[in-house]
Amino acid sequence: MALRIYNTLNKRKEEFIPLQPGKVKIYVCGITAYDYCHIGHARSAVVFDVIVKYLRYLTYNVTFVRNFTDIDDKIIKRAQKEHKVPHEIARYFIKAFYEDMEALGVAKGDIEPKATEHIPEMIALVEKLLQKNYAYIANGDVYFSVERFHQYGKLSGRSLDEMLAGARVEVTPQKRHPLDFVLWKKAKPNEPWWESPWGRGRPGWHLECSAMSMKYLGETLDIHGGGQDLIFPHHENEIAQSEAATEKPFAKYWIHHGFVMVNKEKMSKSLGNFFTIREVLAKFHPEALRLFFLSHHYRSPIDFSDVALKETTNALERVYLTLKRAQDRIGKEVEFEEQALKDKPLYHQLTGIETKFKEAMDDDFNTALALAYLFSGIKAINVYLEEKKPEKSLLAWAIAKIKTLGKVLGLYQSSPETFLTQGVALTKEEIQKLIDKRSEARKMKDWATADAIREKLRLAGIILEDTPVGTTWRKKRD
Ligand SMILES: [Zn+2]
Predict the structure, then answer these.
(1) How far is the CA of 175 from the centre of ligand 1 (A)?
(2) 122: CA distance to ligand 1 center in Å?
(3) d(CA 340, ligand 1 centre) in Å
(4) Percent of the chain, pLDDT > 70?
(5) Who contacts 379 (Cβ-Cβ below 8 Å, separation ≥6)?
(6) Which of 118, 116, 123 has the alpha carbon at shortest distance from 94?
(7) pLDDT score of 407
(8) Ligand 1 centroid vs 292 CA: distance in angstroms?
(9) 238 labelled binding-site residue
(10) Which family does the record claim for this protein (predicted)?
């Protein structure tokens, strides 16, 4: 079976045929660096990390680009509030993003462009759109004219009127149509600006993804991805400005993942019901969060709760306990000849599971089903361990097989000892490191992180005391 992907553009699953045989060019919209990432961002990162890992498992030569928005209203607002320059805010939260991603085992993009480093490319794109009469200048701002692009709305499958009815559109008298979007914003006092043919200003948000993806991946991409909340207007606008400029399709497949919900409501900053990645990782193992995301299909909404995370932690612990039992039985490294194992029942069970795993992943990256097969593989190893004399070479092969498939999902790669003892005991150096991190967070007035670290230490049996000369710690005694 060939890989099939649900393509938002055509609203159906389609066989994946890359533009160039053997190569995949994929672009995913990254974060706006003005705050710590929440678990909605974590889901996005994990979903596309697994998609890229699976494409590589299928031996495609993948180029993965994920951007950073490092100039934007929200960044400027936060900078003004904290008496900093926007660049400092963006730099700080990009660093925090990398820390979170490292914890979650999310690989870096092959190219990670930043908006502020691509202003000339963006200006060139706006000039092209002006020349072709798809854009117009009003009061120093440049807008894209949605009425000029007749396919506007093709991604969300809605007409201009329908989109207008469902959108929160700011009233701007200088726009020709309320859905016209800004390509270039005229500089306001005390805001960063760049010189342009239309005066000083800065790019609108949508522009960067078109300019940067085309620079690194060409005018047509294989896959463009993001969350479902980006379909309209962000991706609709990306399509409009890119295809108007190039007269070529912008992306062949559009992949969108579902929301993270809390108590059946979409998690969002405005509702105040959101959790940062670090808050969650202070309480749960990063692999448990990863497993939680992958236990659901990427297009479905998922309901986050501590109870659900506890369940995935337990499931993960069972896997590592089996891996540990098998490893204890094997002892030191054992060589195996695959040929010699081919008549064993466990061998057949696991190669059958590998086929099923691949079929599940080929069906629009159905990680939930792929995981169910992996669990049945673990179960088969468990049963085999109950036999009188389980063979070491067969066990070694079986574990290697589970780890190879687990690697596609970024799971089961820790040593069982490390996984099972993590969080139980901390070294003095580790404790001091956490205390330093907390002090830094307090200096940044980032109380959420500071509290999360205090809580993490409390769970590890460590009590903190803030004194005038710094923070000290002691072991909790009940
Ligand atoms: Zn984008």
Answers:
(1) 23
(2) 13
(3) 51
(4) 98
(5) none
(6) 116
(7) 98
(8) 26
(9) yes
(10) Belongs to the class-I aminoacyl-tRNA synthetase family.
209 is an annotated ligand-binding site residue:
yes
CB–CB of 403/310 below 8 Å? no
- Specify the pLDDT at position 476: 63
Is 102 annotated as ligand-binding?
no
Kindly tell me if the per-residue pLDDT of 478 is higher than 50: no
272-294 average pLDDT score: 93
Section 52-59 average pLDDT:
98
Between the CA of 338 and the centroid of ligand 1 the distance, in Å, is: 46
Q: Which residue has the tokens 């108590």?
A: 263
Counting beta carbons within 10 angstroms of the beta carbon of residue 220, is it exposed (0 to 12), middle (13 to 18) or buried (19 or more)? Answer: middle
Angle CA 342–348–351, to nearest 5: 100
- The residue behind tokens 């270039």 is 184
Which CATH code fits 306-421? 1.20.120.640
More confident residue, 220 or 166: 220
Residues with CB under 5 A from ligand 1 (ion): 29, 209
Q: For residues 168 and 256, which has the higher predicted lDDT (pLDDT)?
A: 256
* Multiple choice CATH, 4-257, 3.40.50.1110, 3.30.420.40, 3.30.300.20, 3.40.50.620: 3.40.50.620
In contact, 209 and 233? CB cutoff 8 Å: no
- Report the alpha-carbon distance of residue 427 to residue 473 in Å, rounded: 13
Query: Higher confidence at residue 25 or residue 428?
Result: 25
pLDDT band at 385 (very low <50, low <70, confident <90, very high): very high
Distance 209 CA to ligand 1 centre (A): 5
How confident is the model over 389-404, as a mean pLDDT?
A: 95
CA distance 374 to 370: 6
Q: How far apart are CA 78 and CA 444, in angstroms?
A: 12
